[in-house]
Amino acid sequence: MSNRAENTNERFISFGEASATWSTRYRDPSGFECMLLLQAENGSEALKKAASVLAHLSQAQCTPLRKDSAESAKKSANKPSGATVLIKPEGDAKNPVCPLHGVEMQKWARNGRTWHSHRWEDGWCNGKQT
């Protein structure tokens, strides 16, 4: 296939490589991990398109998907993780009861994550079958 137009009156349009690309990874509302790649003729056009895409993804309730690079994983491996903190229920609220053992579970938090668990025999139970 030739890149030249057969008729000299026709204008030649090249569909070569874009000079600017932008990509993002996100999780859609149903939980699928997705990647979107857009191309543009220049950086400013790519940024305009990116702003529009980000607004649309936000409106569609998609969430950013961040995976640590190997470089940042090495850096974070040397840092101690945050302390695990016991969270007491507020007011008259009660902690849930373990469906497996029928005992009250404790709420815990660490590094922005929260979960419920309780001590059982020689370890911890999170109320789920293994």
| Unreliable stretches | 1-8
Distance between the termini: 59 Å
| Tally of separate helices | 2
Average of per-residue pLDDT values: 79
Please indicate the percent range of residues in DSSP E strands (runs of 2 or more). 25-35%
The arrangement of helices and strands along the chain is EEHEHEEEE
Summarize the SSE layout with pairings.
Layout: E1 20-27, E2 33-40, H1 43-59, E3 63-64, H2 70-77, E4 85-87, E5 106-110, E6 113-120, E7 123-125
Antiparallel strand pairs: 1-2, 1-3, 4-5, 5-6, 6-7
Give a description of the structure.
Mean pLDDT is 79; it is low at 1-8. Strand 6 and strand 7 (123-125) form a beta hairpin. This protein has two domains: 20-64; 79-125, no CATH class. The strands form two sheets. The chain has a four-stranded antiparallel sheet with strand order 4-5-6-7, with no helix packed on it. A three-stranded antiparallel sheet has the order 2-1-3, covered by helices on one side. It has helices at residues 43-59, 70-77, and strands at residues 20-27, 33-40, 63-64, 85-87, 106-110, 113-120, 123-125. The N and C termini lie far apart (59 Å). With 130 residues, the chain is α+β, with helices and mostly antiparallel strands.
In short:
By secondary structure, the chain is α+β, with helices and mostly antiparallel strands.
Provide key terms for this protein:
about 130 residues, 2 domains
